Amino acid sequence: MLRTLVAVIRRDLLLAARQRADIANTLLFFVAVVTVIPLGVGSDPQLLRAIAPGVVWIAALLAAILSLHRLFAADFADGTLEQTLLSGEPLAVLVLGKAAAHWLVTGLPVTLISALLAVMFDLGRAAAAALAVSLLLGTPTLSLLGAVGAALTLSLRSGSVLIALLVLPLYVPVLILGAGAVEAHMAGLHSAPYLLLLAALTVLAAVLTPLAVSAALRISAE
Amino acid sequence: MRDSVRSWLDAMGALLLEAVALECTRRERVIFSRLALRAEPGTLVQVVGPNGSGKTSLLRLLCGLSLPSHGEVRWCGQNIRTMKEDYWRQLAYVGHLDGVKDDLTAFENLRLSAAIAGRRASAAEARAALLAIGLDGCTDSFARHLSQGQRRRLALARVILSRQTPLWLLDEPFSALDAGGVAVLRTCIAEHLAAGCIVVMTAHAELPVTARRTTTVTLGGPEAEAA
């Protein structure tokens, strides 16, 4: 079972490494959204510090949504999804592998880049670290919940818009906890409760969403 | 490898693929109904019929990718809906999509698809399968550089690599293949059947694949029937 999980992750990472433009687009989009907002709201350091957690987190959500359609669409089109559905290993494990690979090429780089972007918002070192940790714990949930949306809209023509509409409400708790953790830290409060809840959400999503995605994929592929 | 199939057969008792009162509905339209099928070890099931008569639909029902609106498919007496992975572990399916990733090499495609299917395939076995299907010159070529016929061969290499699986479901396996490819595949199917396995395939015209037992399912009549 573990071998299969590793094989899925390896395949998707290999494919991602060979289609680098796709990843670069997502990350550039993330950077662009975060960069544009200070241009719109002005350069008052006080204001920038206050909105930084929310802005970075919203950009991370949008970047995740932008990359979701890639998750199953190519597999569906070239027939590898059929083969995956007929695997002798549990489908939920394979789905978990796909979500993990998706996180490794979107959530993880977003987390790393956020440390740089924090400088733009004049966040202190500690606040920047809190932001990065909140993203590290929260972005896996974005990939996992997003996989549900991607699987449900797989066979629909206007799927990519629908994914956003389906998934965005589900992302709300992650957004509130993620941005909340950084704001709490900046207000001199403990950010640990927020971070622990984020981690709990990720664990919950890792256990439950693969089952939902498996069911959705079987329906979509029929 | 042939021995492992045999020992597996001994352990399982007789293989048996059955379809009972199968009905397939697409968008409220009944494509076929009351279809019965029974395939014992060593049987080649040929599904024939004109375009749109439901050949691919039947294969998808048989492998469990889609669900029948009525009736059931049984493997060794058990409904495949309850067997799931236990059934899928025992079959290899080639659909009309090749299931080949453009940005992986032929070798990577084969190794990784075997691993994802949950089968053990060593590098040597993968190379042997590519050699058998005549792709040994393209082992490290990206699949996007392969021709349509070569991609088809790559999909079939996956089946050759899964010789231990006792059930092969092949959808138009000979399409896009040249004479050499057809001959290779015919030999593989014949060997698989001789080992006591079951092969179900669709074809526009009946192709002379030698088999001890052949069942032909003709679709597209007023009522589908198994002969």
**What integer value in Å does the Rg of chain A equal?**
18 Å
Distance between the termini of chain B: 33 Å
CATH superfamily of the largest domain in chain B: P-loop containing nucleotide triphosphate hydrolases
Low-confidence stretches of chain A: none
Please describe the biggest sheet of chain B, giving its number of strands, its sense, and whether it closes into a barrel. Answer: 6 strands, mixed
Which strand order spans the largest sheet of chain B, edge to edge or round the barrel? 6-7-8-3-9-10
Task: Give the rounded overall mean pLDDT of chain B.
Answer: 86
Number of strands of chain B: 10
Please report which band the strand proportion of chain B falls in: under 5%, 5-15%, 15-25%, 25-35%, 35-45% or over 45%: 15-25%
Shape of chain A: elongated
Strand content of chain A: under 5%
Helix content of chain B: 25-40%
**CATH C-level category of the largest domain in chain B:** Alpha Beta
The secondary structure category of chain B is alpha/beta
User: Regions of chain B with pLDDT < 50 over 5+ consecutive residues?
Assistant: 222-227
Oligomeric form:
heterodimer
Question: What is the share of helical residues of chain A?
Answer: over 70%
- Write down the domain tally of chain A: 1
Q: Please give the alpha-carbon distance between the first and last residues of chain A.
A: 25 Å
